[in-house]
Each structure stands twice: as structure tokens, then as C-alpha cells.
UniProtKB/TrEMBL annotation:
It holds the Pfam family His_Phos_1. InterPro entries: His_Pase_superF_clade-1, His_PPase_superfam. It comes from the Bacteria. SUPFAM superfamilies: Phosphoglycerate mutase-like (SSF53254). It comes from Pseudomonas fluorescens. Gene3D superfamilies: Phosphoglycerate mutase-like. This is Phosphoglycerate mutase.
Length: 191
């Protein structure tokens, strides 16, 4: 039986990310059309290309191939009325709601989706993929990738992690430890 291989790729940078804003359906910051299909040979063999429905994921998917399949389970977390807001502004205008959201994954003071709901959505998608053999390349969002990692690492985490030779793991501490998954930056793309 062929295994299921899932490669999760975060969309390329947007102006909202650069400005530390909660996302809207914004385009990529880079000239993605000039780089279209520039990463289509990154994976060996035939991979199924899927992405979230947002503009930024569809544009990023165009770097990897033509006609990606839109998968609603890969859409970004719904941040409700916080969409487009700067995190720094919320720290001033609505600090209690922001603190509550950061401290309680089941809360959604913004009127959108809670992190628990996001995790359930992504978990259901991962379960459905278990019977889908082959390689799937999914272009999605940081919150969706975090939710997928959380689902996979829920139990007995150390036995679920493969560490390849010369691989590196980066952890950063700024108030709390964060795992940083690095990838190719725009400067790494062919011109």
C-alpha cells in the first residue's frame, strides 16, 4: 500500500504579514506572475497540488504548478472583526479580548473561528487524507500549518518526529518558545 505524503507550504509574504496585521484576502507582496511555475520541479514525481481559497494561497500555488485544487479545509482561520487590524493596535484598543484569545484556544472574541475550531477542521481534513495515497502539496497559512502540527503531535510527540541527517530545528524565545520552520525566501527564487 502506498503511503500518504503531505507537504504543507506556507503562502508567500503579504503586506499584512509585514505590518503584523490579521489577514484579509490580500495578494502577495512579490511579483508572483514573473515567478509563475518557478518551483514546479521542486518535488520528484507527480504531486497533487492543493491550496486554500484565498488569493494569497492561489497565487503562491501558481509557483508550484497549474490549476491547483481549492480545498476549503485549508482556508485561514476566520479572525472575524479583527481582519485587517494590527496586532499592536488591538493591544491598545482591546487588550483584554486579545489576552483572552491568546490564553484560551476555545475563545473567539473577534466573532470568528476559535483555534479549537480551526484544529477540528484541519484534523478532519488530515483524517480524510489517510486514505489518499500519494504526494499532496498543500499551500496554506501559518495558522493552518500550526493546527496540523498540533493535531499530529497530540500524543507521544517524540515518537512521531523523524529527524533526518543534517536537519536543523530552530526554536526562538520571545516571551515563550516558538518553533520556526524556515523555507525559501523570495530571494531564493529564480529570477
Amino acid at each position: 500500500m502506498q503511503a500518504t505524503r503531505l507537504t504543507l507550504i506556507c503562502h508567500a509574504r503579504t503586506v499584512a504579514q509585514k505590518l503584523a496585521r490579521f489577514p484579509l484576502d490580500e495578494p502577495l507582496e512579490m511579483d508572483w506572475q514573473a515567478l509563475r511555475l518557478s518551483r514546479c520541479n521542486q518535488f520528484k514525481g507527480v504531486a497533487r497540488l492543493v491550496c486554500g481559497p484565498e488569493l494569497r494561497t492561489r497565487q503562491t500555488a501558481e509557483l508550484f504548478g497549474n490549476a491547483p485544487q481549492i480545498v476549503d479545509a485549508l482556508q485561514d482561520c476566520d479572525f472575524g472583526r479583527w481582519g485587517g487590524e494590527r496586532i499592536g493596535d488591538l493591544q491598545k484598543s482591546d487588550p483584554e479580548a486579545l489576552r483572552h484569545w491568546l490564553g484560551d484556544p476555545a475563545s473567539a472574541p473577534h466573532g470568528g473561528e476559535s483555534l479549537v475550531q480551526l484544529g477540528e477542521r484541519v484534523g478532519a481534513w488530515l483524517t480524510a487524507l489517510q486514505s489518499t495515497p500519494g504526494h499532496i502539496v498543500a499551500i496554506t497559512h501559518p495558522f493552518v500549518i500550526r493546527a496540523a502540527l498540533t493535531q499530529v503531535l497530540q500524543g507521544g510527540a517524540s515518537s512521531l518526529i523523524d529527524v533526518e541527517p543534517l536537519s536543523a530545528l530552530e526554536l526562538r524565545f520571545h516571551g515563550r518558545w516558538r518553533l520556526r520552520l524556515s523555507g525559501g525566501d523570495v530571494e531564493d527564487l529564480p529570477r
